[in-house]
Amino acid sequence: MTARGIPGRVVTLTANPSLDRTLELPAPLTAGGIVRLAGSGTEPGGKGVNVARALAAAGGDVVSVLPAAASDPIVSALRAIGLELATVPVPTPVRTNYTLVDPAGTTTKLNEPGAPLTEATRAALSDALHRHAAGARWVVLSGSLPPGTPVGWYADLVRSLRDTGARIAVDTSEAPLLALLAAGPAAAPDLLKPNAEELAQLAGVPEGDLLGDPAAMLSAVRSLHDRGVAEVLLTLGGDGAVLATADGRLWSARPPEITVRSTVGAGDCSLAGHLLASLAGQPPAERLRSAVAYGAASASLPGSAVPAPAQVDGSAVRITAGFPGSAPTAPVPAAGRDAR
């Protein structure tokens, strides 16, 4: 199947979009000094927007729902790349997030909080989301919530989206993530994409305790299935990712060797890679392969750029059955260059 033949629509919600400003440092930052930047760039962002951009770059049918005025620079930038938008007008400009990247690829993020959304704006976003979700294959709720938004809003949306027939993926953190899982099985998404820090938040332990104890990490992943989550995509940065399904099966993936330029948006591209493989009807191991290949390709690009399909090579991703740190198992062979 070619990238331009991907079946099924995906709808993303970005409640707290941003303009992502990347500043390339010539050396590690020294506080109090003067820095002459090696380069800079600005991309339309927010986690759901990044997922939508990656899907669109692969030829996917995607609609991005977000709050923004028609004249906002993020709307102009997204329309310029041909992304289909469903915007709800707000009076406040979209926030700007800043990423400092040093030559070793270390990133430091400075994120503005975003503007509060009125109850009427949230209702309009929900209406737009439901309207486009009808007949869609996936709905993605992604990113932080603006100040003043009820932390249980994602949980409310998951419950209300059930009648659309779309599968639901969620990628968030902190209070909204905790509220989502506390809301019970009715609010549990079909796919949850935590990183190690977020998994530790859910488990109620320090991140270092999980990273140093594979058994504890595995237990934390399985507890998400006990709470109703059907599929867990755990991203681990340079250590790859894990995909677990509710039937007890689990796969681990190691990424290819790359030169890291920026990790901003890499997790979002991993989620997009999984969705592309899911839309193409690929089995779980291939969904994981696609996720890790997309994440690695993103990290090799500057700023929050998203990869084109030609930049994604799933054949270099090593998949094994089982959890990292468990007994070695036979690798799962690659099914082609990349599942798109």
Structure description:
The chain is of the alpha/beta class and 340 residues long. It has a single domain, classed as Ribokinase (UDP-N-acetylmuramoyl-L-alanine:D-glutamate ligase), CATH 3.40.1190. Helices cover 32% and strands 22% of the residues. The chain has helices at 47-57, 73-80, 119-133, 153-161, 174-182, 196-203, 207-211, 214-226, 266-279, 284-299, and strands at 9-13, 18-24, 39-45, 61-67, 84-88, 95-101, 107-111, 138-142, 167-171, 191-192, 231-235, 241-245, 250-254, 318-321, 331-332. Helix 1 (47-57) crosses helix 9 (266-279) and helix 9 packs antiparallel against helix 10 (284-299).
Output the keywords:
340 residues; alpha/beta; UDP-N-acetylmuramoyl-L-alanine:D-glutamate ligase; 4-stranded mixed β-sheet; 10 helices; 15 strands
